[in-house]
Amino acid sequence: MTDLATTTTTSLNKFEKFKAQKDGLAVKAEIEKFASVGWEAMDETDRDHRLKWVGVFFRPVTPGKFMMRMRIPNGILSCEQMRVLAEVIQRYGDDGNADLTTRQNIQLRGIRIEDLPEIFKKLRAVDLTSVQSGMDNVRNITGDPVAGLDADELFDTRELVQQIQNMITSQGEGNPEFTNLPRKFNIAITGGRDNSVHAEINDLAFVPAFKEVEGARISEQGAEEEMTFSSPIFGFNVIVGGFFSAKRCEAAVPLNVWVPPEDVVALCRAVLEVFRDHGLRANRQKARLMWLIDEWGLEKFRAEVEKQFGKSLIRAAARDEIDWEKRDHVGVYKQKQPGLNYVGLHIPVGRLFAEDMFEIARLAEVYGSGEIRLTVEQNLIIPNIADSLLESLLTEPVLNKFSINPTLLTRSLVSCTGAQFCNFALIETKNRALETVKALEAEVELTRPVRIHWTGCPNSCGQPQVADIGLMGTKVRKNGKTLEGVDIYMGGKVGKEAQLGTCVTKGIPCEDLIPVLQELLISHFGARLREPATV
Ligand code: SRM
Ligand code: SF4
């Protein structure tokens, strides 16, 4: 029996109440009806909340122009899929655009409700889904962006990520087993050495680790299975409870569990079932997994997961294999397949328009194998480019816009959506992020990239806590006026020994920010003022 079933309706928050009245996924069957009545006549809860179960987000900032959040497992899509996404936004002219997200994903903008039946048909035809991508669901599952290409990887995450998504969404059709979680849930899996997915900021993450497994464990049928191996075998250490929210941010903690790859999907299911059935639902600010772990203690949480898993869990390996600095994949790199390369394009703050997407699809088809990959830095990779085609790819005009060798600050810039489309935003982010970096680069010279992340409010979608310099939107008072401002975070470390940055300065008005950042770049990151130009 679930905690939800035992909680009285009066103690439920408004989200739990509307979920109890009608499951979010129910709107899937009503899309035709919504399309014919139009967004203004729709039931408000369906429009503002339940549509997110099929990945469609009402935007109070641009009413009538919806956002659609896809699922791109492991961040991999085909040029055919990219073209379909481009066609969807193309019809909306200036209202249509797309954003690459911090979860290796794509969001489309400008969507009209009357077009949804046709859009869903087009998406299904190329095996794309947007189901369960918002609200109390599992978000896009991230994996190594160079899985299967990287000569140094320990495990290719592609198949596993797809299997987890299939389990959670019933092959992309929607799965009522997992459409009423207490809150959102993030899953990441990495088989490389550089923690390319920010494992530590996910509710559940799998990091590579070798384990000598001895003795016996209980099989699914209840019998003891011999599990003795002569040499260490590959699997994953499991970490849990990482999350950012306006109220609290935590890095994930070790669950003291190691799983072989073949048990990953079942473990995801077990953890999700425990979260679904026991996660805290009364206060939405305390509904993420870590709050349950706090309430129960890690030992009890582990024991409940083990019960749900149905066989004994193996203790974590003593160490994991994350021992590299994090790579950003921008530039040209050799693949493990002889004669092939992958090329990482920098997409400024992740923003794309239909013509860009058609062009990227063309490049992937003409020069590569037709595949396109996304990164959590909101950039994009075209893999499988033969040595013989590389030179001509690099002369393509679109690479002037999407560079393989951007300047050092631009290269690592990440920004959430901000005030242009997000009603939580306290500030404008994407354009300001680009302008700020341009102004800084005119003043200072750097010798290494500095990762600046912008986020428009404390929800932290732009992950300021993983940045060298994180900027979180806030409102500030100056000369009797309320202005857009930022709190500054520093100390975020990614890759091996990842750790979260913390707030070091509060309430800098955006109009005063450039000299403050300039000073930080000089004092902490070895930047130097440029010589004044001589006439
Ligand atoms: Fe986020 C809510 C955008 C990654 C924490 N996030 C939102 C909403 C849906 C709010 C809204 O309805 O307007 C934003 C949609 C704005 C829009 O129109 O684009 C939004 N979040 C984003 C994206 C697009 C930022 C980006 O520009 O890349 C990212 C989409 C990821 C995806 O493809 O699914 C995005 N959001 C994140 C991350 C980063 C991550 O997952 O690594 C976080 C912090 C990590 C985490 O969740 O633990 C994040 N978003 C939130 C939160 C705070 C969650 C909480 O527990 O309180 C909210 C607010 C909420 O859910 O109530 C939120
Ligand atoms: Fe919106 Fe805030 Fe998330 Fe930025 S951080 S996308 S402003 S909710």
UniProtKB/TrEMBL annotation:
The keyword Ribonucleoprotein does not apply. InterPro entries: NIR_SIR_4Fe-4S, NiRdtase/SiRdtase_haem-b_fer, Nit/Sulf_reduc_fer-like_dom_sf, NO2/SO3_Rdtase_4Fe4S_dom, NO2/SO3_Rdtase_4Fe4S_sf, NO2/SO3_Rdtase_FeS/sirohaem_BS. It is an enzyme of class 1 (oxidoreductase). Residues 135-312, 410-520 form the Nitrite/sulphite reductase 4Fe-4S domain. It comes from the Bacteria. Keywords: 4Fe-4S, Heme, Iron, Iron-sulfur, Metal-binding, Oxidoreductase. Its EC number is 1.7.7.1. Residues 64-126, 333-396 form the Nitrite/Sulfite reductase ferredoxin-like domain. One of its GO terms (molecular function) is ferredoxin-nitrite reductase activity. Pfam families: NIR_SIR, NIR_SIR_ferr. Belongs to the nitrite and sulfite reductase 4Fe-4S domain family. PANTHER family: FERREDOXIN--NITRITE REDUCTASE, CHLOROPLASTIC. NCBIfam families: PRK09566.1 (NF007125). This is Ferredoxin--nitrite reductase. The lineage of its organism: Bacteria, Bacillati, Cyanobacteriota, Cyanophyceae, Nostocales.
